[in-house]
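Hello,

Our lab assistant flagged a job as stuck in the queue for most of the afternoon. It eventually completed. Since we weren't sure the result was trustworthy after the delay, we are filing this so someone can double-check. Below is the sequence as submitted and the structure that was eventually returned. Let us know if re-running is recommended.
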Amino acid sequence: MTDTATEPHVSGPPEAITRPPAQLGELGAAVHARVRVLQSTRGASSAAGATLARLRRAASKPPGSDPALWELTVGGLPGQPTSDAATPEEVAAHTALTLYALHQQSRAEPAHVRGIGLGQAVQRLAAVNGHAGVRRRFDAVATAASYGEVSHHLRGLVGQLRGAGIPLDYGMLADDLLQIQRGGRAATVRLRWARQLYRLDQTTTAAAGEPKEGQK
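-- returned structure --
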């Protein structure tokens, strides 16, 4: 099915368009499935609450540092290890899952919603908190010279999203973080974020969107 443009939102830029949620990659689908379980059980399961707490504590630590999280952040992910170092998939999944845990902390509403890319979430945040400060934080993420810097600045940005009650698609973020680690793909991710920031209608949520068959 091809994407079709709709009428632009009156408060957005003139070229704003509404699109269905982007199809997730293999890693993004895996992260989406894991976050969806955590999100659906967090209020009813003490185990889910304990897992989220462990994920928050692991946010500034390397992948695999907590054995209690191995099944969630290492097990069953795409990609094959070629050395003792964490794979790009493991790094991206660890970052996305720990950021989700930080985002969801003490919030009743879901922090993970399909179809809301990082640029689109920042667009909504700027409408609440003011453009200049939010753009400085977002630009720091987009222009970071290393993955460690990307992760560091994302933690600050996610804290702002949490404070404003603005959700994010953590499956999409995981796919973005995987591409950032792959040389020339970082420029593609930055362009995607720019389009989300300036060309997507900020009213689009696509909360019901799911990975296509075979990605669940």
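-- support follow-up --
The delay was a queue issue, not a problem with the job. The result is valid. The domain at 26-199 is CATH 1.10.520.40 (Peroxidase; domain 1). The two ends are 20 Å apart (CA to CA).
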